[in-house]
Amino acid sequence: MSIYETGFIIYTNSLRNKAFQHLSMSSSRSNLREVAHKAGVSPATVSRVLNRPDLVAESTRARVLAAAAELDFEPSPSARALSRGRSYVMGALIPHIGYSVFADYIDAVQIACHAAGYSLVMGAYHFDMDEELRQARRLVHSGVDALILVGFKHRPELFELLDANDVKYVCTDVFDPKSPHPCIGYDNRGAGRRIAAHFIAAGHKRFAMVTGDTRRNDRMALRLEGFRAELRKHGFPLPADAVFQGDYTIAEGSRGFSAVYAASQPTAVMCGNDVLAVGALLEARKHGLSIPDDVEITGFDNLEWAAAFTPPLTTMHVPCTEMGRGAAELLLARMEGRDAPHAVALPLALVERETTRPAVT
Q: I want to staple 169 with a disulfide (CB 3.0 to 4.6 A). Which of 147, 158, 225, 252 is the partner?
């Protein structure tokens, strides 16, 4: 089965079978025997020194390690995995690989895994929860030790699969200490409220939102929920035709702005991410609107180019690097039996640039 057939970026062969293959390679055996011969012990003793040093006398252990160092011997990672009952592979399933916020996040996971001696296997399921479940099954059956997920919204069978196979997991991009699922992320509902409050403080009275499909994305659903709740609190409705839900592209951002502007001519538009916001900004210009004088627009994520866009985009900064690193570290701690928090909150910051005006004081 190829990586293209499975949807994984890195291999999906049986990790434990691969460990057996490595153990059977003559070069690995001869190296181990060379160390044993030089140290004057059996190959089994060398193996115990490498895997269970507490079972070997200190003098023998020192002799074996000195011989291994002199011969520049490094044990096979697959053999180590087999002897310790682990694959030393962590999995990560993300909704989409084309959006750069996930690239930064996965890069941070990879760095943390590498530092701990783990490999990373990643799959993208394009917001299809059935496909995510299929990929999760392949990863679990391949022997991954842990799995990183995005959001809380998944097929119930996925969590049942992980629990039944004792695969540690963590949900990212979300924070809820009351959830039964371990998580590291931020308050999406609170972020929506914060952007609405910013618009209200700037004196706006007509609002709209251009977002992704909230049926498939619980983070977007929570942001919309918070945005609507804050507006309602101050007596401002958010009619159904003031909300556009579509795909995560510039074209959909343009189409979304055109739809909500035709319906209610909003003067403040929150977009579900920075890509949608760019589409909205381009469409606003086609309508002859001045930004931010005629309409204010915000994004979400603070991608690298958001500050370089013209005009520079006001957006919510998401600490994706810290989140990726933190997710990996939480799982590593759990797999090693160390204490790890059930829920970790990361701060968000509204980065004000030129697509919004300062609040009225």
A: 147
Of the candidates 252, 250, 223, the residue with the CA atom closest to the CA atom of residue 151: 223
The residues near 136 (Cβ < 8 Å, ≥ 6 apart) are: 91, 93, 147, 158, 161, 162
Distances (CA, A) of 298 to 119, 308, 312: 37, 15, 10
Peptide linkage before 311 cis (omega within 30 of 0): yes
The pLDDT of residue 186 is: 97
Higher pLDDT, 54 or 331: 331
d(CA 343, CA 175): 7
Distance, in Å, from the CA atom of 263 to the CA atom of 242, rounded to the nearest integer, reads 7
Q: What is the C-alpha to C-alpha distance for residues 99 and 89, in angstroms, rounded to an integer?
A: 24
Amino acid code (one letter) for 153: K
Collect all residues with Cβ–Cβ distance below 8 Å to 73 and sequence separation of at least 6.
31, 32, 34, 35, 67
> What's the number of CA atoms in the CB half-sphere (13 Å) around residue 90?
31
pLDDT digits (tens, 9 = 90+) for 238-260: 999 999 999 999 999 999 999 99
Q: Structure pTM? A: 0.78
Residue 151 half-sphere exposure toward CB, CA atoms < 13 A? 21
What pLDDT is recorded for position 359? 73
C-alpha span between 305 and 273 (Å, rounded): 13
Q: What is the pLDDT of residues 120-157, one digit of tens each?
A: 999 999 999 999 999 999 999 989 999 999 999 999 99
- What's the whole-number average pLDDT of the chain? 88
Distances (CA, A) of 131 to 58, 111, 181, 221, 289: 51, 27, 21, 21, 42
Sign for the pseudo-dihedral over CA of 93, 99, 101, 104: positive
**Which amino acid is located at 130 in the chain?**
D
Q: What is the CA radius of gyration of the chain?
A: 26
Take residue 318 and report the two structure tokens written for it.
């998401």
